[in-house]
Amino acid sequence: MEYEICLEPSGIRFMADAGQNIVEAAKQHGIPIKHGCASGSCGDCKGTILSGDSEQGPFMPLLLLPTERAAGMAILCKLYPRSDLHLRAEVVPKDTWTAAITRLTPLAWNVLELRLQPERPYPYRTGQYARIAIPGHPDQWRSYSMATPPDATGTLVFHIRELPGGIFSQWLFHEAQIGDQLMLGSAQGEFTLHSDNDRDMLCIAAGTGLSPIEAIIHESIALGRTRPIHLFYGARKQADFYHLEELAKWSQQYPHITITPTLSDTQDTSWTGAHRLLPTVAASGHWKDHEVYLCGGPGMIEAAIDLLLSHEVQHDHIHFDAFAPNG
Ligand SMILES: Cc1cc2nc3c(=O)[nH]c(=O)nc-3n(C[C@H](O)[C@H](O)[C@H](O)COP(=O)(O)OP(=O)(O)OC[C@H]3O[C@@H](n4cnc5c(N)ncnc54)[C@H](O)[C@@H]3O)c2cc1C
Ligand code: FES
User: Fold this and answer.
1) Domains plus CATH for the chain?
2) 3-58 pLDDT tens trace
3) Cα–chain center distance at 134
4) How deeply is 77 buried, as exposed, middle or buried, from its count of CB atoms within 10 A (0-12, 13-18, 19+)?
5) How many CB atoms lie within 10 A of CB 93?
6) Angle, CA 194 vertex, CA 197 and CA 251 arms, to 5°
7) Phi and psi of 107, rounded to 5°?
8) Measured in angstroms, how far is the CA atom of residue 166 from the centroid of ligand 1?
9) FAD-binding FR-type domain: which residues (predicted)?
10) Interatomic CA distance for residues 55 and 242, integer angstroms
């Protein structure tokens, strides 16, 4: 069964099958509704149902606050039409940038630092991510967070994990050369520093989830803010950690910054630090009045949200970016 979908304010209309979510159906018609993970984990496809019937599939907790649900907001990559629908949804300009690879530096056995120089200024806010087209697959995009705040050089820095069978990461680790050109879509995401309050900051990063968290801490330092920041940084095994020395330097230079690396491999007796990310966070403080920044895989984010809510941290002080697969 097909239904007509009408988008506001653009007035764009297209048909969607009952078994297709709105983002997928729009994509099939060449309409770029704003989205990131396309799997209910990032919240970038939020829209509003103006009229019509639909079915909302499951998505990451907290992507929609109760007030947003009451106002008719929906996660469009998990929204299925059950009648003709009238929706408010952001359609992204089809603006793209070409950027040359200027450096590829190993950070850990499965993490590379990728540096890109866009051919013209690439505007973004600290903590946002870029969508990068996979070379040779121009209709397939992958999301990667910028690891540093914007600066005068215009260079973009990313921390990229190699995934077994990963189309983009396998190309980057094994074929990419300095000078290769990549295509970028405009920057996206709402995972940015909230500098409108003086709450202490709790940051929790797992794996390359460190990338936007580093950028956010970097920006806080550059703004001259001295509110306490506690960063918990988790890895599976010791070889997975990267930037431990750089983080240690931050905590030596800035007394308001505390770094706690944690290891999930509890069998590793050569590790003298803390084991297991979230239990360490839970045991390390009272987080009720903190501004919280979470970044890592969707499983970690969901478990962290549960933990924080049980510590009475308010919804609107929990910010997160889930590094969901976006194949
Ligand atoms: C907003 C956002 C920002 C992101 N920023 C970063 C970043 O800065 N650095 C970074 O390394 N990654 C980041 N990611 C995750 C990255 O975009 C995905 O992992 C992406 O799918 C990797 O592309 P690939 O082509 O290498 O692998 P794919 O071809 O997409 O996937 C290969 C296989 O790995 C699985 N897979 C993919 N991603 C994951 C995952 N995260 N965890 C477990 N299994 C997975 C897939 O299901 C598939 O089986 C981000 C994701 C989002 C949504
Ligand atoms: S694109 Fe819909 S939640 Fe990420």
Assistant:
1) 2-88 (3.10.20.30), 96-185 (2.40.30.10), 201-322 (3.40.50.80)
2) 999 999 888 999 999 999 999 999 999 898 999 889 998 888 999 999 999 999 99
3) 18
4) buried
5) 9
6) 90
7) -105, -35
8) 8
9) 94-194
10) 42
Residues with a CB atom less than 6 Å from ligand 1: 36-37, 42, 129, 142-145, 158-161, 163, 165-169, 189, 208, 211, 297, 321, 323-327
pLDDT digits 0-9 by tens, 58-103: 998 888 988 788 889 999 999 999 999 999 999 987 789 999 999 9
**Residue 43 alpha carbon, nearest atom of ligand 2:** 3
| pLDDT the model gives residue 197 | 86
The closest-lying atom of ligand 2 relative to the alpha carbon of residue 36 is 1
Distance 115 CA to ligand 1 centre (A): 18
Question: What is the pLDDT confidence band of residue 260, given thresholds at 50, 70 and 90?
Answer: very high
Q: Which residues contact 210 (CB under 8 A, 6 or more apart)?
A: 147, 159, 233, 242, 243, 295
Going from the C-alpha of 75 to that of each of 9, 79, 191, the distances in angstroms are: 18, 6, 17
Give, using CA atoms, the residue closest to atom 37 of ligand 1: 325
Which amino acid is located at 311 in the chain? H
Q: Compute the distance from residue 52 Cα to the ligand 1 centre, in Å.
A: 34
List ligand 2's pocket residues with C-beta within 6 A.
35-38, 40-45, 59, 75, 77
